[in-house]
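Z., the sequence and structure:
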Amino acid sequence: MNQRERHDRHTQMLQRYKKQRQRNLLAKPGCHDFILVLDNLKAGYNVPKIFRSAQAFGAQAIHLINIGPFDPAPGKGAFKQVPAYFHETFEECYQALDKEHYKLFTLEPEEGCDINKSSPPEKSVFIFGHEEQGISFDLANYPAIERLRIPQFGSVQSLNVSIAASIVMYEQVRQHGKKS
């Protein structure tokens, strides 16, 4: 692909993003009380896929921390259906969620209680960090945030973030879900 084609694709992606972000202002919360926080994820492929799963599982909303424009096309329209809240820092996001009395959890590949052996409350927030660097904040500064993990049995260090988010949402709906 030459430079002109890349530029045209990027321009089209930005147009789709801006259009769906405007439509997102009318998005309605899903039927379940959980929220996802995407903390400094790469803006590419995983973010729209997480929106797609969040819409399928009835998430209340997704909070995005320091995530720039992304192509909403892989989300199949979910970006305009799941309420999105944009923050510059985790602290800003944390303050907003704390006011709503949510219980917060990070997902970490090696530490924490197994998601299938825990029982997060209906009103939970699940925080997913950057694919390589993890969460952007010092967990010691937020002692109320608990750690969860998805049990893994192979030699892979961690799951793809969109797959991990889908597993967590499935488990939350399994434990607290409304009938479809």
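The two ends are 44 Å apart (CA to CA). The longest helix spans residues 3-24.

Let me know what you think.
H.
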